[in-house]
Amino acid sequence: MNAEEDKVKANFLAAQVFVRGTDNRFNIQWHFNKNIPLGQVLKFAKTNQEKANVYVLYSFKNIKPNLDAIQKVIELDPANIGLSFLLLREINKIEDWVLTPIYTMFLPALRPDYWENTNSGRLLNRVEVDRKYAEKLLEVVSKLDFEKVENKNFYLLVKSYLEFLTKDYNSSIQTLKPLERKGIDKDIKRQLDIVKALSLTANQKIDKAIILGEIKPIVLRESKNKNFSFLFAIAKELEFLNNKVDAGYLISQIILDGEYDSVNSIFWKSRTRKITLQDDFYSDWYGYIDADLNTLDLQKIVNEMNLKSDSFDRWKKRILKNDPNRVYDLLGVKYMREDKLEQAYFYFSKISKTHYTNLLFNENPFYKIKGYMNYDSKQTANNFTKAKVTLELINYLKRAKNVKNARRDIDYFLAANCYYNMSYYGNSWMLKRIYWSSSAAEANMKDEKEYYTCSQAKNLYEQAFKYTKDDKFKVLCAYMIAKCEARKNEYEYLTKRDYFWDMEYYKLKEKLNGKSFKNFKFKYKDEYEEMISNCEIFTNYYKNRIRKKV
Fold it and tell me: What is the CA radius of gyration of the chain?
């Protein structure tokens, strides 16, 4: 073949060697000129088998749908040993086109028209197009006489996997039954188990799905083999059926040997478009559970974490059970987002004192507003924990609601400060989020609007304004009400943008604040001028109130 001067004939000879010689296949590709038209090469073929071999080689590097070539090989030589190679290659492509988007919300690696699929809606719509293509390939495979193909077991496995990819789960399970016998090739048996586990899991009813007993040994074996892609696939199928608890358990088993493992690392985006970290994708259980499990899901995990269970359940719970502080912290955060302070306090209280190695709160959330407002410099954040802050907030609210409390305006004000500080703009955001970035992003969390508009803080400042009899304190409350209004205006502006945070925002910030403080400046003109020129005035106004008995 190397000595052949006729480049067209050289391609023909390469095709014949490529199909026959397993060890030489990857070397042959360097002697193959893909720019030579296929029709010219076919002229050298004397038999249908030789023609089929040419189609096989010409399909070798085709990353686009290759069904026409596959059909041609079947027509010419259904027993051609290169056919299984083409089918396996096509299955790999369809697997990428279908499963990569639905499992990870990322673009497929083998997508020549990827620019068409730049958002999640179009991405998933394209998946349905690729499923239709998979159905066409399945139809072709199903018509084959499996008694005449090169490897019957392989073709049954291909058919079953195509049935899974096209959501015909019952057929997928039935197709595998002839293969479930002793003596089958171990590699085929392993792939059979994987496809079976996927189809059995996906074939369950929504809200009723579990990790079936039949697939538990397969899950354990694949976990031992570090087949994390399989664990992730089962987890996502359970997620689609609303069993996010078991999905969280399985994702927690994706354990990498090092901080970065290019082979086993899995990255995915939330289907609910939630962003809890700096980036919009996840790679571990902590981000996944925060983004996609609701409070009740995580509460269920906590409730059953220490219950007696069988060996499989002990295995699936082991990671979360061995990291209770992060689990309790996350559950407390979820309750804080729902403003369920008692429940949040309960779980924050269960966190070990040694869990946080660094000082968690740099500023007192009740007396310091992030920036220049410090109402009482003696009030520090020393020894503050999430539990302590939450308990103090609970107590402030209880006292504020007591009609016999003559200082309820102060208690409302301090509680309002804490709520403001739990927002994106405050110093205690960690009570409601697991990550903060100066580049704000629309995270689509349950308390998203509150987190950016400070509406709860505004309501409490209004209560403080209502109940106070001190004129200076009224001014202070009115100023904070206007400040919360400014946060609302910022949020409403930003959510109208194609992206959440942009440079134009900074140019308009002064204008937005001017709109928010318009009424305050009109009513308290002298005080406003004093406030923007003297940061000590906030301390003085506050202390002026607390020195009074009523």
Answer: 32
More confident residue, 4 or 532: 532
**How far, in Å, CA of 343 to CA of 416, rounded?**
20
Terminal-to-terminal C-alpha distance of the chain: 102
Burial of 403 (0-12, 13-18, 19+ CB in 10 A): exposed
Residue type, 509: K
> What whole-number distance in Å separates Cα of residue 460 and Cα of residue 481?
9
pLDDT digits (tens, 9 = 90+) for 480-531: 999 999 999 888 877 776 444 554 555 666 666 777 888 898 899 888 888 8
- d(CA 426, CA 381) in angstroms, rounded, equals 14
User: CA separation (Å) from 398 to 341, 454, 469?
Assistant: 12, 20, 20
| Distance of alpha carbon 520 from alpha carbon 525, whole angstroms | 7
Looking at the predicted structure, is the pLDDT value of residue 114 above 70? no
pLDDT in tens, 231-285: 999 999 999 999 999 999 999 999 865 544 545 689 999 988 888 887 788 999 9
Q: How far apart are CA 406 and CA 416, in angstroms?
A: 18
Evaluate the CA torsion angle 79, 84, 90, 91 in order and state its sign.
Answer: positive
pLDDT digits (tens, 9 = 90+) for 372-417: 789 988 899 988 999 999 999 999 999 999 999 999 999 999 999 9
Max intra-chain CA distance, the chain: 108
Q: Which helix (H) or strand (E) holds 369?
A: strand 368-369
Average pLDDT, the chain: 89
Backbone angles phi, psi at 322, to 5 degrees: -85, 0
The DSSP H or E segment spanning 250 is helix 244-252
**Of 101, 443, 104, which Cα lies nearest the Cα of 254?**
104
- DSSP annotation of 375 reads S
Specify whether the CB–CB gap between 421 and 370 falls below 8 A. yes
Consecutive H or E run containing 481: helix 471-494
What CA–CA distance (Å, rounded) separates 520 from 483? 10
